[in-house]
Amino acid sequence: MLRLRTHPFSGGRCLLAAGARSSHRRAGTSRKKGPTPPLPPPSPPNPPKKPTPFTFLGVTWHDSYSWMSNFEDPVAMRHMDVYMEQEEKYTEAVLIASGADRFQRKLMIEMAPRMAADLCTPPVKLGPWLYYRRAEEGKQFHVLCRRSAALHQEFISYSEPSVGFDFQSGRRIEQKLVDYNQEAERFGGCSYEERSEVSPDHHFIAYTMYDKEKDSFTLCVRDLTTGMLCDKPQADRVANLSWAMNGKALLYTVTDNDKRPYRIFCSILGSNKDDILIFEESKDNAVVEIRNTKDFQFITVNIFSNNSSKVFLINAADPFSGMTLVWECEPYVHCIVEHHQGWLYLFTDAARGGEAVDYHYLLRRAAKDYDSRNWESFLLEDLGVNIVDIDFCETHMVLILKEGKLFRLCSIPLPLSVDGKGPVRLSALQPCFLPLPEHACQIMPGPNYDYHSSIMRFIISSPVMPDATVDYNLTNGKWHIVQQHNILHERTRTLYGPAAISDTKEAPVSKGVGSHDHPHGSDGMWNELTEFYVCEYLEVPSNNEVLVPLTIIYSRKHKHENSPALLHGYGAYGELLDKRWKSEFKSLLDRGWVIAYADVRGGGGGGKKWHNDGKRSRKQNSIIDYISCADFLVQEGIVQENKLAGWGCGAGGLLVASALNSRPDLFKAAVLKVPFLDVCNTLLHPVLPLTPADYEEFGYPFEVEDFLAIRKYSPYDNIQKDVPYPAVLVTSSLNTRFGIWEAAKWVAKVRELTVYDPQRPILFNLTADIVEESKYLEAKECALEAAFLIKMVSES
After folding, report:
1. Taking every annotated instance into account, which residue ranges of this chain make up the domain Peptidase S9A N-terminal (predicted)?
2. Strand ranges (DSSP E) for 505-617?
3. Is the pTM of this model over 0.85?
4. Sequence-ordered list of residues with C-beta below 8 angstroms from that of 26, at least 6 positions apart, any chain
């Protein structure tokens, strides 16, 4: 909610009770006062119903709330404003009546210290400089700074005011580059940055800031010598950035009115000439993306369309020399090209020999060979081992692998010694398997900008460990944790400089895939929470077709039999379900809750086929998988019957809401965050721009098979009539990909069609624009969700 007000009757009720007690005492009676009668449950809002018929492909339906998305109708928008205010007051009244408002404040006190932002990000080495973002006392937003890497040993702590000044030499050792508090003043109080790139010569920084009035990202280029903004380039609707000519030129893409990147411009810094258009994509269904290779030798141009996926190269030394096609394959395929010492490396999941594959693989070719078909395989695939991601530096290539349920991190020395030998096994490339915690669930490459450094950074995540930022020295196998939040002591574990050196460990070298000497496990350095919380992996049969991975976490202090539980799901875009440790869940775990994650079809982690089996006309598989996991938790006694709650965000909200439609009896409550609910109407009549990937994921409504499938799974179109639904908290924002009318329409229709039960309220909470910008607002929202769940599930 935007604001929590004091209940209008609370003060009067307290005064009346105090007066009654006083009069009883004066009368000399000793009779005890009875309990205060509970407040009557508030009545939910009842927005206007204006049934509007829609007919498509021979199917006719009526939508009573389509007016909520009609921005061109001022009367409808006035109704919408009134309705939003009514929803705010209703949610507020329900929380007060249930005591959830007080409980929210208690939980917020618990959560806020655990969710406190770090004073500074870990410094990133780029050439002779260390770049980092740090907080300033009394300011809302961070400041981007840099200092000489030679002073790293003096870099003790960011929490002291003297951090930016060397008192012995009497000189400043920190340079402020971008103050995002000042940027907020320029952009109407909003300070949201999407892209930022430092030039290779360290003289400029280019970054894009969100302009709320224009609803787009504005390009800014700042001279790091003077600290002043450059007069040009100046552009709106900027999507990507890449440097050329060693920092003398900047390439950037701009979007059309539908937010589709389609043009590439080149700006010569210091020149008075207009920026030059070097490419324009005329096809409405094509998207253009650009990026620098790690060595800044080339700029890759990816063009994705309904017909194909293409990769072009631009020579960064001469950006006007044209684009060279180096790869072309079927549409909607992941393809990343990198350059290393005269070789181009391709990481893709495109079809091989005309046959679709279920995994990513690596190819390479000589950079001077301009025949885009002349790619060669150098690595034989090992059965059961998939390459998840890849990163390069001058001396090594690092592979993020998944072997069964285990993630692995493997470094390979470069250049490869496979010339003329054909493809070889990974074990022949002198791999070094780097240490990971036992329950690693996600490995993300860090900002490894320094191509010439053999130290690479990765963010390691686990369901039972706060995220760890780890630097691995690939030449000697040593590693240390640069930053990790210690949730038990409410602090950050490691400082920078000499304090960090004591944490350095020697990495055990493991060679050969499939061996049992994986460098996993806890040696006390990972700050894992396995002493207090258990992480288990289960497999759930779904529809007699597949086994769905199910991860559960619970406290060792509480038995996980017949507990309340929160089941997470996503299942879209082939993305991994976020199973990282979240500090706000500690409040649920310590109260005996089980946190569960269902890796349903449509998501990532199970290969390309796993994703394809849960999208478009097969989207129903995702919903079946989620319900199977929910049923399993109850039937196996892990969760007490009638004590299960669901949680989904974005496309995950679609998944959970569809499960509620299919099995409302299975859930006691649910939280839907900025959910995608009105799928059919949104895909047919988008109010906000959609990308080709959105249609590829949820279906093309102009194709009969997809249209019928959408009508079958769309949460808004499949609400059961005259059936009790669980309590639901729906949150949305004025600044999300899915408009607030999606949530508002679903909430109104559920209340209209289902059996009303004041003990199972359907609540709509409108949050601030960008909650993630404020740890206070983030803690407040998390506390509201937890208070709602505990009151509706545990205490009901």
Report:
1. 49-484
2. 505-506, 533-542, 546-555, 563-569, 594-598
3. yes
4. none
The gap from C-alpha 285 to its chain's centroid, in whole angstroms, comes to 25
Q: Are 494 and 157 in contact (CB under 8 A)?
A: no
CA distances from 667 to 583, 590, 644, 650, 727 (A): 24, 22, 5, 19, 9
**The two structure tokens encoding residue 425:** 């096994």
d(CA 445, CA 458) in angstroms, rounded, equals: 5
What Rg do the C-alpha atoms of the chain give, in angstroms?
A: 28
Do residues 756 and 791 lie in contact, with contact meaning Cβ atoms separated by under 8 Å?
no
Using CA atoms, how far apart are residues 585 and 281, in angstroms rounded to an integer?
46
Of 643, 648, 687, nearest to 795 by C-alpha is 643
DSSP type of residue 791: I
Q: Cα–Cα distance between 326 and 344 in angstroms, integer?
A: 9
362 φ, ψ (degrees, to nearest 5)? -115, 140
Per DSSP, the three-state class of 531 is coil
How many CB atoms within 10 Å of residue 281? 19
What is the strand order of the sheet 298-304 is part of? 287-292, 298-304, 309-315, 323-329
Cis peptide before 564 (omega within 30 of 0): no
Specify the 3-state DSSP secondary structure of 95.
helix
CB 652 within 8 A of CB 571: yes
> Quick one: pLDDT at residue 172?
64
Instruction: Tell me the C-alpha distance between 558 and 589, whole Å.
Output: 9
pLDDT of residue 15: 28
Alpha-carbon distance 88 to 763, whole Å?
9
The tokens describing 512, both together, are: 């050969």
CA distance 128 to 149: 6
What is the Cα–Cα distance from 289 to 262, expressed in whole angstroms? 8
pLDDT one-digit tens code per residue, 427-481: 888 899 999 999 999 999 999 999 999 999 999 999 999 999 999 999 988 898 8
Q: How far, CA to CA in Å, does 492 sit from each of 142, 221, 224, 524?
A: 18, 33, 30, 15
- Dihedrals φ, ψ of 791, to 5°? -65, -40
Asked if residue 372 lies in contact with residue 350, where contact means CB atoms within 8 angstroms, the answer is no
Which pLDDT does position 458 carry in this prediction? 95
Q: Which two tokens stand for residue 446?
A: 């860090």
- Please tell me the predicted confidence (pLDDT) of residue 24: 34
pLDDT in tens, 597-629: 999 999 987 888 999 999 999 999 999 999 999
For residue 29, pLDDT beyond 60? no
Instruction: List the alpha helices (DSSP H) in 526-678.
Output: 586-589, 607-612, 620-635, 651-662
Mean pLDDT of 708-731: 95
pLDDT reported for residue 8: 29
pLDDT of residue 289: 96
Which one-letter amino acid corresponds to residue 39? Answer: L
Residue 253 tokens read as 């893409």
The DSSP element (H or E) to which 574 belongs, if any, is none
Minimal CA–CA distance to 164: which of 145, 189, 188? 145
Token pair 């098979």 in the structure block, residue: 705
**CA 571/CA 624 separation, integer angstroms:** 11
The residue with greater pLDDT, 370 or 664, is 664
Nearest to 472 by CA among 508, 429, 442, 513: 508
DSSP state for residue 592 in the 8-state scheme: T
- Decide if pLDDT at 492 tops 80: no
620-635 and 704-713 helices cross at what angle (nearest 10)?
30
- Torsion-angle region of residue 571: left (phi > 0), alpha (psi -120 to 50) or beta? left
Average pLDDT, the chain: 84
